[in-house]
Amino acid sequence: MNVLMLGIGQCGNRILDAVNREAFGGSSRLSKYYSRQKFPSRVETLAINTAVNDLKELRFTAAKDRLHVPNLHGVGANRGIGKQGFWENREMIMEEIERRGDFDIAFVMTSASGGTGSSFTPLVVHELRERYKKITVIPVMVLPFREEGSIYLQNAAFSMRDIMEVESDGIILVDNQYLKRLSGDIKTAYDKINEMVAERLLFLIESLDSEMLSVTDLGDFKTVMKGGLGMGTLGFYESDKKTASLTSAIESSLKPSGLLYPADVYEDAARAMIIIQGSRDSLDVDEITKSVEKLSTKIGQVFKGIVIKKGRPKILSVFTLGQVPDLEMLYAQAAQAIQDEKSRKTRAKKQLDDAFAYIEDLEEVY
Ligand SMILES: Nc1nc2c(ncn2[C@@H]2O[C@H](COP(=O)(O)OP(=O)(O)OP(=O)(O)O)[C@@H](O)[C@H]2O)c(=O)[nH]1
């Protein structure tokens, strides 16, 4: 399978760096000696940014895989400038991608709320669709902490609408706000979130490209991603000594603690795919079949995949949602923030006009 992973803007770049870190051996001391990725698929990565400093800070992404869009130093969270920046550099950006050959699937990772990534991503998705007729395109959109300010909220609202309007094959949602409970300080939270996203995406890629005992393939994945509202998220669970059974491990992969976006899977999910990796003796196919069937009665369509691989069972759940109450709340907050900003501007303007009114009929006296 030929996979393209694009990370656009600072957040997208950093998630891509986490992917490269993971793919080249993770945090192990040996990782720097790996010159090739550990995965069977051909995975091409490219970090795109308007801010050269964001690209410089990457540690695991090769220099040839960093593309600076010239004449800009970030777009200061301004999506208008971002879109213009993309149009002015469209051919250069797309040529850089096309030089990497043909692809079956592309993941385009970005924050929904900054300027560069959130404005480039819908346009890049559109271009990929135009240029690669058979490609599956999955945007991975990171929603902001809700207290990050009105511009970030507004950007998230408008960029999510833009990304829904271009024809992707389903959006994977990641919510910083939901995941911030993972850590006290922001830097550690970012690292942890990025690592979670990287781990899940690489698990997915690896599984789709493996000989599965029970087959799920790119076609099934696309069917899942097209379900419901065409947006969903990923869950994950890694068994340990304390895990009671395979069934409880499968159920745990759907629990809030492993999800990248808040959802009540049993209430909200439209379609799902459960992929189980583990050593042959740790996987009981009958038990897996039974628990997936049980899930199907609640969720509707559930695909299952089983990959034989050394170690305790690890489970990835992929699902799309039929309702997204948290996203609706984000829009309500964004609308309120835009209104507040407007009234603050009007008030400030009036105050200034009132101030100028004091000297309206006066001249400077020297
Ligand atoms: N999960 C995660 N979120 C991040 C990270 N870095 C930034 N963010 C979030 O991304 C949003 C800001 O978007 P950026 O990606 O920094 O913006 P950009 O696309 O580079 O655009 P400009 O800086 O405006 O040119 C905020 O909501 C941040 O919380 C990261 O490493 N991980």
Automatic annotation (TrEMBL):
Record-given protein name: Tubulin-like protein CetZ
Recorded name of the encoding gene: cetZ
Family classification: Belongs to the CetZ family.
Summary of the function given for this chain in its UniProt record: Involved in cell shape control.
Source organism of the structure: Methanothrix harundinacea (strain 6Ac)
Molecular function (Gene Ontology), one example: GTP binding
Cell compartment(s), UniProt: Cytoplasm
Pfam families: Tubulin (PF00091)
Record InterPro entries: CetZ (IPR032907), FtsZ/CetZ (IPR045061), Tubulin/FtsZ_GTPase_sf (IPR036525), Tubulin_FtsZ_GTPase (IPR003008)
UniProt main location, coarse: cytoplasm
Keywords: Cell shape, Cytoplasm, GTP-binding, Nucleotide-binding
Binding site for GTP: Q10, C11, G12, N13, R14, G115, T116, G117, E148, N176, N194
Domain Tubulin/FtsZ GTPase, residue spans: 2-212
Any one GO CC term of the record: cell division site
GO terms for biological process, alphabetical: cell division; regulation of cell shape
